[in-house]
Amino acid sequence: MSSKLVSILPVAIAALAALGCQGTWVTKEQYDRDINQLYEVNVGLRRDNAACRTKADAYDQLLVQGKIFDDANRTYAELAEALKKALAGLDVEPGAITIEKDGRVTFATDVLFDFRSWTLTPKGKDILGKFASTIKGTVVKIVGHTDRKPIVTRGMKDALETDTNKELSVKRAIAVMGELMKHGIREGQFSEVAGRGADEPRRTEKESRRVEIFVVSGAVAPAPVKTSFKN
């Protein structure tokens, strides 16, 4: 071995030792441990990122729902004010017509119909005509209700096909729909017309006898169908 090579070896060994002390050289066990730690950190970051994305999506959904809720409240408030103005001057018993926050307008049947009848009174027609002016362009649902008393009068029993409160409530809902249509509300603006009979009673029999009209929030009334006739 040459003297030059012998003289270089101690220097090389010292340099390698110095590099090892600085952490450049690691054992396989240390390398595997570091890789596993990095993997665990990466998994944790992915998990946290997924959780943040889920929370962000939920927050965005809440913002959308909040906007819909605010828009609905604004619509109901405008409806309440418009209905109040439309009915001003009419001789309506306090509490006979109420507007609730869910867009439901409740009409006591006593203010619309004669007792045990589905024929609208002149006042009932007047009320519904004015109500129709407040819901132009909206979509509504009509639901009729009765009390629990069975139908016993002969005239009513003969007039009904099924002799039930359910049928009576349906006929009242249809009568309301018909009157609203006479005042410009189109068939496409009714999402549902139904009768519940005595299935959803309220505290008293008088309160149970009612017709509810719901303004369907967010629903858009279909455009009028244009028809043309050719000779």
Structure, described:
- This protein is α+β, with helices and mostly antiparallel strands.
- It has a domain at 78-215: 2-Layer Sandwich (60s Ribosomal Protein L30, Chain: A), CATH 3.30.1330.
- The chain is 52% helix and 11% strand.
- Strand 1 (97-99) and strand 2 (104-108) form a beta hairpin.
- The relative contact order is 0.12.
- Residues 1-9, 11-21 and 63-69 have low confidence and may be disordered.
Keywords:
single chain; 5 strands; 231 residues; disordered N terminus; five-stranded mixed β-sheet; alpha+beta; 60s Ribosomal Protein L30, Chain: A
In short:
This protein is α+β, with helices and mostly antiparallel strands and 231 residues long. The chain has 7 helices and 5 strands; from the N terminus they run ααββααβααβαβ. Strand 1 and strand 2 form a beta hairpin.
CATH topology-level fold name of the domain at 78-215: 60s Ribosomal Protein L30, Chain: A
Task: Briefly note the structural class of the backbone.
Answer: alpha+beta
Mean pLDDT: 80
CATH class of the domain at 78-215: Alpha Beta
**Based on the structure given, which CATH architecture of the domain at 78-215 is correct?**
2-Layer Sandwich
Q: Give the tally of β-strands.
A: 5
- What percentage of the residues does DSSP assign to strands (E)? 5-15%
Query: What string gives the helices and strands in order?
Result: HHEEHHEHHEHE
Distance between the termini: 120 Å
Radius of gyration: 38 Å
Strand order of the largest sheet: 1-2-5-3-4
Q: In terms of per-residue confidence, which ranges show pLDDT below 50 for 5 or more consecutive residues? A: 1-9, 11-21, 63-69
SS summary, helix count: 7
By CATH, the superfamily of the domain at 78-215 comes out as OmpA-like domain
